[in-house]
Protein backbone atom coordinates (compact mmCIF):
# COMPACT_ATOMS: atom_id res chain seq x y z
CA UNK A 1 0.00 0.00 0.00
CA UNK A 2 1.32 3.41 -0.96
CA UNK A 3 1.58 6.06 1.76
CA UNK A 4 -1.17 8.65 2.05
CA UNK A 5 -0.09 12.29 2.13
CA UNK A 6 -2.59 15.06 2.91
CA UNK A 7 -1.71 18.75 3.05
CA UNK A 8 -4.48 20.80 4.61
CA UNK A 9 -5.34 23.64 6.93
CA UNK A 10 -6.20 22.70 10.51
CA UNK A 11 -9.80 23.87 10.71
CA UNK A 12 -12.74 22.03 12.29
CA UNK A 13 -14.24 20.96 8.94
CA UNK A 14 -10.90 19.34 8.02
CA UNK A 15 -11.23 16.74 10.79
CA UNK A 16 -14.04 14.67 9.20
CA UNK A 17 -12.53 15.27 5.74
CA UNK A 18 -9.17 13.86 6.91
CA UNK A 19 -10.88 10.91 8.57
CA UNK A 20 -12.79 10.17 5.37
CA UNK A 21 -9.61 10.35 3.25
CA UNK A 22 -7.77 8.01 5.64
CA UNK A 23 -10.71 5.56 5.70
CA UNK A 24 -10.85 5.50 1.89
CA UNK A 25 -7.09 5.01 1.69
CA UNK A 26 -7.11 2.12 4.15
CA UNK A 27 -10.07 0.48 2.34
CA UNK A 28 -11.01 -1.41 5.52
CA UNK A 29 -12.38 -0.49 8.94
CA UNK A 30 -9.76 1.31 11.01
CA UNK A 31 -11.56 3.01 13.94
CA UNK A 32 -8.46 3.34 16.12
CA UNK A 33 -6.51 5.04 13.34
CA UNK A 34 -9.42 7.40 12.63
CA UNK A 35 -9.64 8.33 16.31
CA UNK A 36 -5.91 9.13 16.34
CA UNK A 37 -6.30 11.29 13.21
CA UNK A 38 -9.11 13.22 14.91
CA UNK A 39 -7.22 13.70 18.15
CA UNK A 40 -3.94 14.84 16.60
CA UNK A 41 -5.58 17.21 14.12
CA UNK A 42 -7.84 18.63 16.84
CA UNK A 43 -4.76 19.20 19.03
CA UNK A 44 -3.24 21.34 16.28
CA UNK A 45 -6.43 23.39 16.03
CA UNK A 46 -6.68 23.84 19.80
CA UNK A 47 -3.03 24.38 20.70
CA UNK A 48 -1.28 25.76 17.61
CA UNK A 49 -4.18 27.60 16.04
CA UNK A 50 -7.03 27.29 13.61
CA UNK A 51 -5.84 27.62 10.02
CA UNK A 52 -2.37 26.17 10.69
CA UNK A 53 -0.97 24.30 7.67
CA UNK A 54 -0.68 20.59 8.47
CA UNK A 55 0.63 17.51 6.71
CA UNK A 56 -0.87 14.13 7.55
CA UNK A 57 0.95 10.95 6.51
CA UNK A 58 -0.29 7.39 6.85
CA UNK A 59 2.28 4.70 6.17
CA UNK A 60 1.82 0.92 6.34
CA UNK A 61 5.01 -0.73 7.56
CA UNK A 62 6.13 -4.09 6.11
CA UNK A 63 5.29 -5.76 9.45
CA UNK A 64 1.65 -4.62 9.17
CA UNK A 65 1.79 -1.73 11.64
CA UNK A 66 0.27 1.58 10.57
CA UNK A 67 2.16 4.79 11.25
CA UNK A 68 0.34 8.13 11.45
CA UNK A 69 2.29 11.39 11.34
CA UNK A 70 0.84 14.88 11.77
CA UNK A 71 3.28 17.72 11.04
CA UNK A 72 2.72 21.41 11.82
CA UNK A 73 5.05 24.44 11.67
CA UNK A 74 5.19 25.17 15.42
CA UNK A 75 8.42 23.81 16.95
CA UNK A 76 7.53 25.15 20.42
CA UNK A 77 4.20 23.52 21.26
CA UNK A 78 4.89 20.55 23.51
CA UNK A 79 2.48 17.72 24.06
CA UNK A 80 1.78 16.97 27.69
CA UNK A 81 -0.29 14.06 28.92
CA UNK A 82 -2.31 14.84 32.00
CA UNK A 83 -5.01 13.32 34.13
CA UNK A 84 -8.12 15.46 33.61
CA UNK A 85 -10.70 15.80 36.34
CA UNK A 86 -13.95 13.96 35.76
CA UNK A 87 -15.67 17.30 35.04
CA UNK A 88 -13.12 18.40 32.40
CA UNK A 89 -14.45 18.54 28.85
CA UNK A 90 -10.96 18.29 27.28
CA UNK A 91 -7.56 16.82 28.03
CA UNK A 92 -8.06 13.16 27.13
CA UNK A 93 -6.67 13.10 23.60
CA UNK A 94 -3.12 12.06 24.44
CA UNK A 95 -4.41 9.52 26.95
CA UNK A 96 -6.46 7.96 24.12
CA UNK A 97 -3.45 8.05 21.82
CA UNK A 98 -1.31 6.39 24.49
CA UNK A 99 -3.94 3.69 25.03
CA UNK A 100 -4.38 2.91 21.32
CA UNK A 101 -0.85 3.20 19.97
CA UNK A 102 1.97 0.73 20.43
CA UNK A 103 4.18 3.77 20.70
CA UNK A 104 4.08 7.47 19.93
CA UNK A 105 6.30 10.49 20.10
CA UNK A 106 7.24 13.93 18.82
CA UNK A 107 10.02 15.03 16.48
CA UNK A 108 11.00 18.66 16.87
CA UNK A 109 12.86 20.56 14.16
CA UNK A 110 13.51 24.28 13.64
CA UNK A 111 10.75 24.19 10.98
CA UNK A 112 8.10 22.54 13.17
CA UNK A 113 7.13 19.29 14.78
CA UNK A 114 5.73 15.92 13.83
CA UNK A 115 3.57 14.00 16.26
CA UNK A 116 3.51 10.34 15.29
CA UNK A 117 2.01 7.09 16.49
CA UNK A 118 2.20 3.47 15.45
CA UNK A 119 -0.84 1.26 15.67
CA UNK A 120 -0.76 -2.54 15.75
CA UNK A 121 -1.35 -4.61 12.66
CA UNK A 122 -4.79 -3.91 11.36
CA UNK A 123 -6.78 -4.30 8.18
Provide the fold topology.
Layout: E1 4-10, H1 14-26, H2 31-47, E2 52-60, E3 66-72, H3 93-100, E4 103-109, E5 112-119
Antiparallel strand pairs: 1-2, 2-3, 3-5, 4-5
What does this structure look like?
This protein is α+β, with helices and mostly antiparallel strands and 123 residues long. It has one domain (4-119): Heat Shock Protein 90 (2-Layer Sandwich). Helices cover 31% and strands 31% of the residues. The chain contains three helices and five strands, in the order βααββαββ. The model has no long low-confidence stretch (mean pLDDT 88). It holds the Pfam family HATPase_c_2. Keywords: ATP-binding, Kinase, Nucleotide-binding, Serine/threonine-protein kinase, Transferase. It comes from Streptomyces cupreus.
